[in-house]
Design brief:
- Helices cover 73% and strands 0% of the residues.
- The protein has one domain.
- The chain is built from seven helices and no strands.
- By secondary structure, the protein is mainly alpha-helical.
- It is globular, with a radius of gyration of 17 Å.
- This is DoxX-like family protein.
């Protein structure tokens, strides 16, 4: 069930990244209306959605490199979110100095890291129906 929910989220992020970005801005910024996105910010959100869909839909057949990179990003976000917050702000916004972060931005970034790790873990599990059928046939 969680796999399907995250897969749906990835698809929404690919097709309509702006509402996802707007929601993240409302969570993390005290002044989201002042945020000026860089032109490639929407493509970055779409890329995140593609990674989620790729890993969750392909499961164990997905790219190991993509899974490792998302897992590393998840670990760093979960353990030391501040440098990633700063880096992502400079990549996503043109007016980083004008933005006011809400006090819970670090816990929210840690949760994003846990989300990344969850996607990686779900992509490694053999709970897709075709994987279960394959496993059952091989144990006979």
């Amino acid at each position: 069930m969680l796999r399907k929910l995250l897969l749906a989220f990835g698809l929404v992020e690919i097709v309509k990244p702006r509402p996802v970005i707007d929601a993240c801005e409302r969570v993390g910024l005290a002044n989201p209306s002042d945020a000026q996105l860089r032109p490639w910010a929407l493509w970055g959100a779409r890329l995140e959605g593609v990674v989620f869909v790729w890993l969750l839909a392909r499961g164990r057949q997905g790219s190991t490199v993509v899974g490792v990179l998302l897992g590393l990003a998840g670990i760093v976000l979960a353990l030391v979110p501040r440098p990633i917050i700063t880096l992502s702000q400079h990549l996503v916004y043109e007016n980083t100095d004008d933005l006011e972060l809400k006090p819970w931005i670090e816990p929210a970034a840690r949760l994003l890291g846990v989300l990344y790790l969850t996607v990686v873990a779900l992509s490694r599990r053999a709970d897709a129906p075709e994987d279960a059928d394959r496993a059952n046939r091989s144990t006979r």
